[in-house]
Amino acid sequence: MRRGFFLVFEGIDKCGKSTQARLLAGAFKRLGIPLILTREPGGTVLGEQIRRILLYFKGNVSPMAELLLYEASRAEHVASKVAPALRQGKLVICDRFTLATLAYQAAGRGLNLSLVDRLNHWAAFGIKPDLTVVLDLPVSVSLKRMGRKRDRMEQKAAFMKKVRRAYIELSRRRSDIFLVPADEPVDRLRETIEHLIKRHPKFRRFAKSRRLFQ
Ligand code: TMP
User: Fold this and answer.
1) Is 214 within a domain?
2) Are 149 and 105 in contact (CB under 8 A)?
3) pLDDT per residue of the chain (214 residues) written in tens, 0 to 9
4) By three-state DSSP, how is residue 37 classified?
5) Residue 37 belongs to some domain of the structure
6) Domain, as residue range, for 131
7) Residue 18 resides in a domain
8) Which of the residues 35, 89, 132, 208 has the least number of beta carbons within 10 Å of its own beta carbon?
9) pTM of the entire predicted model
10) Contact 70 CB / ligand 1 (< 6 Å)
């Protein structure tokens, strides 16, 4: 039986989601909400090793192998961390989840969308986020924030544009995904996000059932 609440942060690279996830977790912890803050790829010992391969492996990785590595990290993460925390009634705040795979591997790398969707479903054991907040940032700002690593910039820009477009389109199609303009000062963005989550009917039901904010 699932009693917790599953909240996911998404967006293109350097959109500020990790900072916002951390700030929100801190604020909710101070309110006494039982929660875990975690991330994908990663979140477990095995997942963090897979993350290192995904982010730092020097050779070429084929798109399908890359997809399966993300899904392997996810399967371990959901089975050993996310699902148990949700069963215990906790708030799970996760920095990226299945939407990232649709945006990066399907839209970005061109892998078949329904294949990615099915693998996402299997790797997540059917668990879906209750709410996903996509921080939307122009690609030019993302690239600027990447700073000194300006190699293969045009290629990166084209890829990131596809990813951003996918996030925007997916958020239009689904009522559980919120697109938030992220080119804002950190504190203003934090307030917007906190407000959005606290007044969301699903989150309010969770808070009420757990007798939070009382
Ligand atoms: P991070 O920027 O959130 O640390 O994520 C690391 C990278 O992993 C980022 O470039 C996005 C990428 N990613 C995918 O391509 N597919 C996925 O399914 C996930 C979870 C992340």
Assistant:
1) no
2) no
3) 668 999 999 999 999 999 999 999 999 999 999 999 999 999 999 999 999 999 999 999 999 999 999 999 999 999 999 999 999 999 999 999 999 999 999 999 999 999 999 999 999 999 999 999 999 999 999 999 988 665 677 888 999 999 999 999 999 999 999 999 999 999 999 999 999 999 999 999 999 988 776 5
4) strand
5) yes
6) 5-209
7) yes
8) 208
9) 0.96
10) yes
Whole-number Å distance, alpha carbon 152 to ligand 1 midpoint, is 18
Closest atom of ligand 1 to 17 CA is: 3
* Nearest residue to 160 via CA among 182, 178, 130, 140: 140
**Torsions phi, psi of 14, nearest 5?**
70, 20
Ligand 1 within 6 A of CB of 104: yes
Q: Examine residue 97 and state whether it is found in any structural domain, yes or no.
A: yes
Q: Whose CA is nearest to atom 7 of ligand 1?
A: 55
Q: Residue whose CA is closest, atom 9 of ligand 1?
A: 13
Number of neighbouring beta carbons within 10 Å of residue 183 = 14
What number does the ligand 1 atom closest to the CA of 41 have?
20
Pocket test of ligand 1: the residue of 96, 121, 142, 160 to mutate, having most ligand atoms within 8 Å of its CB, is: 96
In total, how many domains does the chain have? 1
CATH of residue 65: 3.40.50.300
| CA of residue 40 to ligand 1 center, whole Å | 7
